[in-house]
Amino acid sequence: xxxxxxxxxxxxxxxxxxxxxxxxxxxxRDRLLYPKRAITVSCPIHRDDGKIAVYQGYRVxxxxxxxxxxxxTRFSLSVDIGEVAALAIWMSWKCALAGLPYGGAKGGITxxxxxxxxxxxxxxxxxxxxxxxxxxxxxxxVMAPDMGTNExxxxxxxxxxxxxxxxxxxxxxxxxxxxxGGTEGRREATGRGVAYLVGRALERVGLQPAGATxxxxxxxxxxxxxxxxxxxxxxxxxxxxxxxACYFDPRGLDTDALxxxxxxxxxxxxxxxxxxxxxxxxxxxxxxxxxxAAVERVIDASVAKRLQCRVLAEAANGPxxxxxxxxxxxxxNEIFVVPDVLCNAGGVVVSYFEWVQDLQQxxxxxxxxxxKLYHVLDRAFTQVMRRVERDGVPHxxxxxxxxxxxxxxxxxxxGLFP
Length: 418
Ligand code: NAD
Prior knowledge:
By secondary structure, the protein is α/β, with parallel strands linked by helices. The protein has helices spanning 6-21, 26-33, 81-97, 118-132, 151-165, 186-205, 221-232, 255-265, 279-282, 301-306, 322-330, 340-343, 346-360, 366-391, 395-414; strands at residues 37-46, 52-61, 69-76, 103-110, 141-145, 213-217, 236-241, 246-248, 289-292, 311-313, 336-338. Nicotinamide-adenine-dinucleotide (NAD) is lined by residues 145-148, 190, 217-223, 241-243, 293-295, 315-317, 344, 347.
């Protein structure tokens, strides 16, 4: 077994829960769970001081049953093959739940992108894409941004792939700048989708967005646009953190000033001395909406027991461990969970729109992108809630089961080659 580690084990444990619930025969399970392909590459670059440094890169493609694979590329010190495989598996259930013609994929490099200069980041991005050329393609595997990568990295990926093809191939990645074939609305899509689904969840628990309080962990692409959109809907941000700082004020934080500070300085550090707070206690403060939007496994059983939120909106992938799920199931009347495969699906939905627009070379305006996004998220939310009501299962089980079922049906109708 090449995959290991706590995040991979988490994806496996979650799958077995779903497989038991769906009564999937034992001999079918491995075919659904284990990734189709895993690629590991060494990426050597010249650092700015002239020395050679080598970084390990990965790409895992989970299944190709419904179309190409789709998934982000993460630059982080936490990246290993097990984490990437887990993220690829979750992408499969997410895409299927949203009704997209994709399997899941994920990739990454084990590197701290903050420790690289802009030039080093560019050469590493280009070398990684160059190493991946034999394994990716607009109809094989389409990359996107994730933690530690952004529009600029996607533009370098696209340019590198295009140079080798001898023609511009915008549809090889999504999350590109609009100026290089990206779509309106992709940058904001994941955070806006999270905020939209928070709105649906608040309706369900009988709370109005105006005046509701929120705590958000992570202030990158997803966290910052979630904060911005929640604020536009009247939600009061009382706590926020990133890897450099944590702030809490029950009277409310100035979201415009936080967004401005983070855009100017690249992080939250230095925003305030008075409002600093212990990040270990942030998630368990009383609030209406809690949004983990950073890394995996931040809510374990002990945190889950102490949560004081009414809605848990999982913007990050895999923030909640299976033992925390057991606690959350016991607390299901107190805490409404919007599981990750639903909550952060806005990103891949608009990535899909970007791919479609690139393939057709026919571009939509932002309002069209957004209204189509909300339509897809609404449909998925409604399907999940119907399932919860019909079978009395937790929200995560319902959401993942819809995804697993779709992949399973596609595999069974296509049959097993040869
Ligand atoms: P990003 O790199 O833009 O931002 C990550 C943020 O998390 C940064 O603010 C960083 O400081 C913070 N962070 C890192 N470690 C932290 C810690 N221990 N405590 C608090 N904050 C910490 O990444 P992103 O694209 O916003 O992704 C965040 C999460 O959302 C990831 O789980 C990612 O897989 C998921 N996601 C992203 C997208 C997307 O479109 N970018 C789509 C779906 C899911």
